[in-house]
Design a protein that fits this description.
About 20% of the residues lie in helices and about 35% in strands. β30, α4 and β31 form a beta-alpha-beta unit.
Length: about 725
C-alpha cells in the first residue's frame, strides 16, 4: 500500500469517525431537547378561566329546547385524602365497615408501613404496623399481617375492635388472604399454605400446595371453592378447586406476555355462579377468563395496569395504572368512565362492600377516596359510539333560539352524505348515529361555560377541560358548536403580514416539535377512541362536505391527496369517498353501534423497506379489515389532490413552503378479508419521509396506529454525518 493511499484511507477514516462523534453528540442533544420538551408539555399547567358569571339569564322558553347538562353527572369528587409517605402498594376496605381502610406502603426508609384508617378522620390513623401485607377477615373483625423481615417472621392475627394481637401462624410467609368463609388463610410461603383459622386463637396448617412449581400470588372466588395462583417465574395461572382438606388443580391459563413473570394482578368477580377471572399483565391489556375451561376469554386493551377490583354487583371493574383510574363494563368491555385526581402512577385500588366508594393510591404518597354512589349507575346507562351534540355558551352571550333545529339539520345532512356514499359503493346506507330525543330530533346539550367568549377563542383545550368534567370524552364523538360574538372587539388589532409570517414560523416550530415527539414515541402502539369537533357560529358558513371531512377525520380517515375528488383531499372538485375509505367506515364502530367491544391485541412486527415496498407482518385475532400507510412527502411537486390554490404555480409554491415534508397523508391502503394473520406489502415511494404511521382497523371496528422509523441505523448515521 502506497503512502498516499494510506493517508487517504486514514483521512477518510478520521472524517467518518469525527462525523460519527458529531452525530452522536447531536443525536443526544436532540434527544435531550425532545425529552425536555415532552416533559415541559406533560407538566404544563393551564391557568383556570377567570370566573365571570352570567349577567343575563337564559330565558326558560329557550333553555327548555335543549337537554340540560345536569342530566349527565359530574365526575366523582374526592371525599377523603390520607397522606402516607412511600409508594402505596395496598389499599383495602373493610368488608363490613365502608369507613374503614387498611393501607400499606413501601416507604423511603425501606420499611413496609401498614396503617388502619377511618375515612372520617384522615389526619390520624387508628393503628400502625410493620409488615409485607395486610388483609381483613370476611367479617371485618381481624387483620392478618405478615412480615417476612420480622425477627420471628410470622403471620399475625390482630383483633380490630380490641386493638390487640390474637395469635401467630408458625410460618415464614407473605400475602396472607382470608377465604370468603373466613375458615382458611392462604399464605405465600415458598408455595401456598392454607391454614385453618376457624379458631383464630389456635391456627392449624391444613394444606400445602404441591411445590414442583412454586405458586405465588393468589385470590379466592366469591364462594371460596376456587383459588387462582400465579406460577412463579412463568406466565401460568393455575385454577384450584378447594374441597374440604383437599385442593385439586382444575385448569391452567397460559398468559402470553412480553416479560415472563409480569402478571400484575388477578381478581375473581363477586358472582359465585359465574366467577369471571380478570387478569392484568404487562402486555398492556386485561383478560376476562370464563369458567368452566378458562381458555375462552375477552381482552380489554389499555395501558400498564397494576391492580384490579370488581364492584360488588359484578357489572363493572376498576383498573389502575398508567392511565390513572378507569371503570370498565364486564358485559362488553367498554370504558364507562375515568376518574381524575391522582398526580402519578396508581398502584392499588379497592371498592367498598356497599359499592359507594373507591379508594386508590400510588407513588404520590396520598390515598384518595371517591364517592361514586349515584354516579356509576347513570354512567353505565349512557349510550356510546354515537355523536353527542353540545351547544357551548359563554357567559356573555345568549343562545340562538333556532340553534337546535339548525344543528339537527346539519347533523342529518352529514348523515345523508355518508349514507349516499356508502350506498354508492355497494355497502348499504350505513352511517353514524347521534343522540336523539323521543321525536327523533337531535338531543343537544346546552353547556354553559365559566367565562366570556374571548377566553375560548382559538384554544380547544379550554373548552374540552370544562366539558370533560361532565362527559367521558374517550367514548363518543362530541360535536361542539361554540357560540361566538358577531361584534368585533374594539381592541382587536388588524392582522398584518408580519403577524402572518410570525404565525407561520410558529407553526413550523410546532411541527418540528411534533416530529421530535413522534420520534420519542416510535415503536409504540396507540388505540384510537372517541373524538371531538369544535365549530364556531355562524354555522351556515360550513358546507356539508367540509363538516363530513371533519367527521371522517374523527372516524379514522386522514388527509388523502391521491385524487382531487376524494373527501379527504384539498381538491376543488365535488367530494366523494374513495372505495377504500368507504370500506374503512364500514368497519367503524360509529357505523356499527351494536358491535361488540372486546378487542384482541393488534400486533405489527417492525416493518422493513425494500426498494419501493414496505413489508410487514400483522396479526389480530378479531380479523384485520384494513391497513393504511401514512407519511409526509418530500417531493417538490404536490400530489394530485393538493389544490390549495387555483393557479398551478402558486399551488406548487404553497406546497413547497408550508406542506412539503410536514403534512402526513395517506400513501397506500390494503383491504384484507378478515384475515387474522398476514404478510403484507404497501407502496413506499422514494420521496416519502422515513417517519411513517401505520393505521389498522379490525372487523370489530377497533382502531390502532403505530409510529415507526423505517430507516436503518446506518442510513440515519450517514445522514447525520453528511448533513
Amino acid at each position: 500500500m502506497s503512502f498516499k493511499v494510506f493517508i487517504s484511507l486514514l483521512l477518510v477514516g478520521c472524517i467518518i469517525l469525527f462525523g460519527f462523534i458529531f452525530f452522536i453528540i447531536g443525536y443526544n442533544q436532540q434527544t435531550e431537547d425532545s425529552e425536555e420538551g415532552l416533559d415541559e408539555y406533560l407538566s404544563r399547567t393551564d391557568s383556570p378561566p377567570p370566573q365571570i358569571p352570567r349577567t343575563e339569564e337564559i330565558p326558560d322558553e329557550i333553555r327548555h329546547k335543549f337537554a340540560a347538562v345536569t342530566e349527565i353527572p359530574e365526575k366523582p369528587e374526592i371525599i377523603a385524602e390520607f397522606v402516607q409517605e412511600g409508594n402505596l402498594e395496598t389499599v383495602e376496605f373493610s368488608p363490613t365497615n365502608p369507613n374503614l381502610i387498611v393501607s400499606r406502603t413501601y416507604d423511603r426508609n425501606f420499611e413496609d408501613s401498614i396503617r388502619l384508617w377511618d375515612i372520617n378522620d384522615p389526619d390520624t390513623p387508628i393503628a400502625e404496623f410493620k409488615g409485607d401485607s395486610a388483609s381483613f377477615s370476611p367479617d371485618g373483625r381481624i387483620l392478618a399481617i405478615s412480615d417476612s423481615r420480622d425477627y420471628d417472621a410470622r403471620v399475625k392475627l390482630w383483633d380490630i375492635a380490641k386493638e390487640e394481637f390474637i395469635s401467630s401462624l408458625w410460618t415464614v410467609g407473605d400475602n396472607a388472604v382470608f377465604s370468603p368463609d373466613k375458615n382458611l388463610l392462604a399464605v405465600e410461603a415458598r408455595g401456598i399454605e392454607l391454614w385453618d383459622v376457624s379458631d383464630p386463637t389456635q391456627p392449624v396448617k391444613a394444606i400445602t400446595l404441591e411445590r414442583k412449581r412454586i405458586e405465588d400470588e393468589h385470590t379466592f372466588s366469591a364462594d371460596g371453592t376456587l383459588m387462582a395462583t400465579i406460577e412463579a417465574f412463568s406466565d401460568i395461572i393455575n385454577i384450584w378447586q378447594i374441597d374440604g382438606n383437599h385442593v385439586i388443580k382444575r385448569n391452567s391459563i397460559n398468559v402470553i406476555d412480553r416479560k415472563v413473570g409480569w402478571i400484575e394482578a388477578l381478581q375473581f368477580s363477586p358472582d359465585p355462579q359465574n366467577p369471571i377471572l380478570a387478569i392484568a399483565d404487562n402486555d398492556e391489556d386485561i383478560r376476562l377468563c370464563y369458567p368452566p375451561d378458562w381458555q375462552n376469554y375477552n381482552t380489554i386493551p389499555t395501558k400498564n395496569v397494576h391492580d384490579l377490583a370488581f364492584t360488588p354487583d359484578g357489572e363493572t371493574f376498576i383498573s389502575v395504572g398508567l392511565n390513572g383510574i378507569e371503570i370498565w363494563s364486564v358485559e362488553n368491555g367498554k370504558l364507562i368512565a375515568s376518574i381524575e385526581g391522582q398526580s402519578g402512577w396508581v398502584y392499588c385500588v379497592d371498592v367498598s362492600a356497599d359499592g359507594n366508594f373507591i379508594a386508590a393510591g400510588g407513588n404520590d404518597d396520598v390515598i384518595r377516596v371517591w364517592n361514586i354512589k349515584g354516579y356509576l349507575p347513570i354512567k353505565r346507562k349512557s349510550v356510546q359510539d354515537v355523536v353527542v351534540p353540545i351547544y357551548f355558551m359563554p357567559t356573555n352571550l345568549q343562545p340562538q333560539a333556532d340553534m337546535p333545529e339548525r344543528i339537527d339539520k346539519m347533523l342529518k345532512d352529514v348523515q345523508t352524505f355518508f349514507a349516499d356514499e356508502m350506498e354508492r359503493h355497494g355497502l348499504g346506507r350505513k352511517t353514524f348515529d347521534f343522540e336523539k330525543n323521543s321525536n327523533g330530533t337531535a338531543k343537544i346539550f346546552l353547556f354553559e361555560g365559566k367565562t366570556t367568549d374571548d377566553y375560548y377563542n382559538g384554544d380547544s383545550s379550554q373548552i374540552l377541560e370544562e366539558i370533560e368534567q361532565h362527559f367521558e370524552l374517550s367514548n363518543n364523538l362530541y360535536f361542539i358548536v361554540l357560540e361566538k360574538s358577531s361584534v368585533k372587539k374594539t381592541d382587536e388589532k388588524e392582522i398584518t403580514a408580519a403577524d402572518v409570517k410570525k404565525l407561520l414560523k410558529g407553526m413550523q416550530k410546532s411541527r418540528k416539535r411534533m416530529r421530535e415527539l413522534s420520534l420519542t414515541l416510535r415503536g409504540s402502539m396507540f388505540r384510537e377512541k372517541g373524538g371531538h369537533i369544535i365549530v364556531q357560529t355562524p354555522i351556515n358558513r360550513f358546507a356539508t362536505h367540509t363538516l363530513a371531512q371533519d367527521f371522517a377525520g374523527e372516524f379514522g380517515l386522514h388527509q388523502d391527496y391521491r385524487d382531487p375528488s376524494y373527501l379527504m383531499s384539498d381538491g376543488r372538485e365535488s367530494k366523494h369517498l374513495s372505495k377504500d375509505s368507504a370500506l374503512w367506515l364500514s368497519s367503524s364502530r360509529f357505523f356499527n353501534s351494536e358491535q361488540v367491544f372486546f378487542d384482541r391485541k393488534t400486533i405489527i412486527k417492525k416493518p422493513s423497506c425494500f426498494r419501493d415496498k414496505l413489508r410487514l407482518e400483522i396479526e389480530d385475532a378479531d380479523g384485520i379489515s384494513q391497513i393504511r400507510l401514512l407519511a409526509a412527502s418530500n417531493s417538490d411537486n404536490p400530489p394530485p389532490g393538493f389544490q390549495r390554490k387555483i393557479d398551478p404555480t402558486e399551488n406548487q409554491t404553497t406546497w413547497k413552503r408550508s406542506y412539503k415534508g410536514d403534512t402526513v397523508a395517506l400513501q397506500d391502503v390494503l383491504t384484507l378479508q378478515g384475515e387474522k394473520k398476514a404478510k403484507v406489502e404497501l407502496d413506499y415511494p422514494i420521496y416519502l419521509d422515513s417517519l411513517i404511521e401505520l393505521h389498522v382497523i379490525d372487523d370489530n371496528g377497533n382502531r390502532v396506529y403505530l409510529i415507526e422509523l423505517t430507516e436503518n441505523p446506518l442510513t440515519t448515521i450517514l445522514r447525520g454525518i453528511f448533513n
